[in-house]
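Hi P.,

Sorry for the delay on this. The queue was packed all week, but I finally got your sequence through. Input first:
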Amino acid sequence: MRRRLLWNLLAINLPNIGIFVVVMWLAIDFLAADYFSTLMTQYNIEPDDANKMFLDAIYRYLAQAALLALALTIVLSVILTRKVLRPLSQIAEVTRRLAAGDYGARAPLGPADEVGELAAAFNRMADSL
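Then the structure:
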């Protein structure tokens, strides 16, 4: 379950990073490059060579930023997945104990979030048994 959730979280985040990189790439191609060429022409600098150097530098930095964002996404997804799965694993363990006949087993109540509500609902169900 842990690996599936991690991959699902990554699958949610990676398209966002990809879309951002594509949008930035297009913005640079259509807006920044033309503006840079106009400035170079205005100051009597040959725009072809300077524009190529400008685009090469921008694309290199954009690629580095995308790789950094990807690495950060993976690290944060792993950390957050573990944080979310810890209480869910505890609830699953209590469920196994309850199914095995330990009717005193209760899920630890966490913060008042969705997982905490799940634990409280599980405990109410166990009390009714």
